[in-house]
Amino acid sequence: MATEHDSHTTGTQAHGGAPHSDVFPPFDTHHFSSQLIWLALTFGVLYLLMSRVALPRIAAILEDRQATVSGDLDYSVSLQKQAETAGALCEQLITEARARAQALAEETHIRLAHEAVEQRKTLEQDLHERLVAAELRIAAAKERAMHNVEEIAAEAASAIVQQLTGKTPDASSIASAISTVKIA
User: Fold this and answer.
1) N-term to C-term CA, the chain
2) What is the C-alpha separation between 89 and 95, in angstroms, rounded?
3) 154 within 8 A of 134, measured Cβ to Cβ
4) Confidence at 7, pLDDT banded by 50, 70, 90
5) Residue 19 confidence (pLDDT)
6) Each residue of 101-139: pLDDT tens digit?
7) Residues 2-17: what's their mean pLDDT?
8) What is the DSSP string of 18-83?
9) Are the C-beta atoms of 157 and 151 separated by less than 8 Å?
């Protein structure tokens, strides 16, 4: 039968039949050597896995990322240079366009001024010709009027003399009398 000691050891034994101790198993010095061996094996396997599998993949990913970032930065720098070149070209084109517009405006202003002078000269010539023609018409009308005045004066003088004297005067004597008055 079981003794008191046996009953006590029976309830305190671990599954392997080893007696129970009050120390936490990983800190038990009795198991240190086997734990250190397993620690070294596990560390070695993890080190090999990390160095041969995981770290090369991570390094490749980081290199790809760095290459992508570097390429993107280089591309952005080239685009920035292109934008600056395009901006400078645009400014140059704007400056040239302004200069051409200014030259065209001056040329147009000068051309319009010359056209205005030519139109004014043409208009003045036309007005002068009209004035000369009008003066000629006035002179002709005055001449006709004066000729008519002489005829009217001769008829009036003849009628007055006939009325006063009762005789019809001679046309040559009336014409000579009118011409002497005209001279005076």
Assistant:
1) 195
2) 10
3) no
4) very low
5) 61
6) 999 999 999 999 999 999 999 999 999 999 999 999 999
7) 51
8) PBP-SS-GGG-GGGHHHHHHHHHHHHHHHHHHIIIIIHHHHHHHHHHHHHHHHHHHHHHHHHHHHH
9) no
Letter for the amino acid at 56?
P
Torsion of CA 142, 148, 150, 153, to 10 degrees: -120
CA separation for the pair 26, 54 (Å, rounded): 29
| SS3 (DSSP) at 169 | coil
Length of the chain: 184
* C-alpha to C-alpha distance for 40 and 32, rounded to whole angstroms: 12
Q: Residue 184's pLDDT is what?
A: 43
For range 72-96, the mean pLDDT: 95
Residue 91 main-chain phi, psi, to 5 deg: -60, -40
DSSP collapsed to 3 states, 85-137: HHHHHHHHHHHHHHHHHHHHHHHHHHHHHHHHHHHHHHHHHHHHHHHHHHHHH
